[in-house]
Amino acid sequence: MRIALGIEYDGSRFHGWQTQQPGVRTVQLELEKALSRVANHPVEVHAAGRTDTGVHASCQVAHFDTEAVRKPHGWVMGSNIHLPEDISVLWSQEVSEDFHARFSARGRTYRYYILNRLSRPALQAKRVTWIHSPLDAEKMHEAGQALLGTHDFSSYRTVHCQAKSPVRTLRSLRVERNGDHLVLEVHADGFLHHMVRNIAGVLIAIGSGEKPLAWAREVLEHRDRTLGGVTASPHGLYFHRVDYDESFGLPGASSAIPLLMI
Fold this sequence. Notes:
Blueprint: E1 2-9, H1 27-39, E2 46-47, E3 56-65, H2 72-82, E4 87-95, E5 107-115, E6 129-130, H3 137-144, E7 149-152, E8 167-178, E9 181-188, H4 195-207, H5 215-222, E10 237-243
Parallel strand pairs: 3-10, 5-6
Antiparallel strand pairs: 1-3, 1-4, 2-3, 5-9, 5-10, 7-8, 8-9
Helix pairs in contact: 1-2, 3-4
């Protein structure tokens, strides 16, 4: 059987999603260890997206193949018993063999949370990015609209990005404020390495008045990462949702975290 999972995790103490060399703590490694104990055989997990060090997920989607027969709540409760406190399986569901967490995805959504006040966070440390200088959320939102559509996002990806093509389609981008909190939400067919953090870095520079409104488009048109802005911290970034064809019948694709709450 092929089983799909919804997973949330706090990435603060992980070196990203993907399993690396021995001794490096990753989400994939911890999840595979837990699921292997429930299945009673080695399990390999495939995710919708490989988050970086320090990046969180409110609903990552993954799948694995198994010969073990368990009820959906058995996979959920069984794996959560063996997982560390900063990872939780939200749901599980049997899916067809043609489902693939990564390649079946039709779109992905990230959210980037910013605490915009003079004093640094304590309760939300490493769960938001702290910017002490005032930010203009409306200006950030307006500047971001220049990135909508299908473009070469070379200026918004790391120079180490291994994607074969820098072309992606950004379907929506919005920036909203609620008191001291801002959230940047971006939805696209896919994302390049550091793409969301680089977009956030450019919009933060515009929102603070350091750069003009037109700078987001100018950076895009350069198609050169060396002419882009600062890569924003990973602490405020959340892999929020993955979209799949309704025929797969997956549960709600994201946890119920309101737009302006952590």
